Amino acid sequence: MAFSDLGLVPEILRAVVECGYTEPTPVQAQVIPVALTGCDVMAGAQTGTGKTAGFTLPMLSRLAPFATTSPSPARHPVRALILTPTRELAMQVEESVHTYGKYLPLRTTVVYGGVNMNAQIAILRNGVDILVATPGRLLDHVQNKTVNLSMVQMLILDEADRMLDMGFMPDLRRIIALLPAQRQNMMFSATFSGEIKKLADSMMNAPQLIEVARRNTAAETVRQVVLPVHKERKHALLTHLIKTRQLRQVLVFCGTKLGANRLAQHLSRDGIPANAIHGDKTQQARVEALDQFKQGVIQVLVATDVAARGIDIDQLPCVVNYDMPHAAEDYVHRIGRTGRAGASGEAWSLVSVDELRYLADIERLLGAKIPTEIIPGFEPELGAMPEPARARQPRFDPSKQAAGASTPVSGAAAREALMASPPTRRERVDIEVPDTPPALRAQAAATPVRKQVAALFRPPGNAGN
Ligand code: AMP
Question: Is the pLDDT confidence value at 400 over 90?
Answer without folding.
Answer: no
